[in-house]
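Fig. S4 source data, part A: sequence.
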Amino acid sequence: MKNLIFILLLLTFSFANESNDTNNNDFDNEFDSEFSTNNEEIFDPLSGYNRIMTTFNDKTFIYVLNPISKGYAYVTPEPIRIGINNFFENIMFPVRLTNNLLQLKFQNSAEELGRFLVNTLWGLAGFLDPATNELHMDAHKEDFGQTLGFYGVGEGFHVVLPFLGPSNLRDIAGLVGDAFVSPLTITGDGDMQYKIPNTFEQQMAIQAVNAVNSNSLKLGQYESLKKDALDLYPFLRDIYTQARKKQIEE
């Protein structure tokens, strides 16, 4: 459930280390400036299925993930939640490093390695983020879907995945690629020692904690995002597609 509303995470991930009371007007203004209306047609042969799955994901977010996140935020102080978010960010370093290297972004790769060493050694295993807060070394978020796009692989048709949200054929392949280097995803009996979960159940539990904790730092932003949507499915589809194109171009 970590990426239940994936476009929300794409647009708000930078707020993970900020207070929950982010001004919604500021969020709306940033969204409007980043993603204007795009008339480019998106290949969408599964639109009927995608609409149904969008409704399912939306209701799951509203009636399951959001209430749990609110209760969790009520009993868990924000500094602890920020620390947990920092920890998950730090531990996903292999995915960012690998994809920066594959995209020949060697400076970014060196900075990712530096961030990991600083935050692991001086940031209490990543619960603190001195690399960002003290050394101003920002993370360079790259995934295998972006790497495929970097090498010219087309996005294919749009697909909405249960719980994961908007995607496309290229990004589904990207999820598989990232799974092999992610410490939080098991891929088989021959997994490397750096893999944290030993069973699928452990993996789901870890990802659920990550999803709830991450969402607890963004409460209200999904509602703010979709409040002006006349038709939720194409709205989220178009935002996702534009966001991914922007990420690949950067």
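Fig. S4 source data, part B ends here. Strands lie at 158-161, 165-168.
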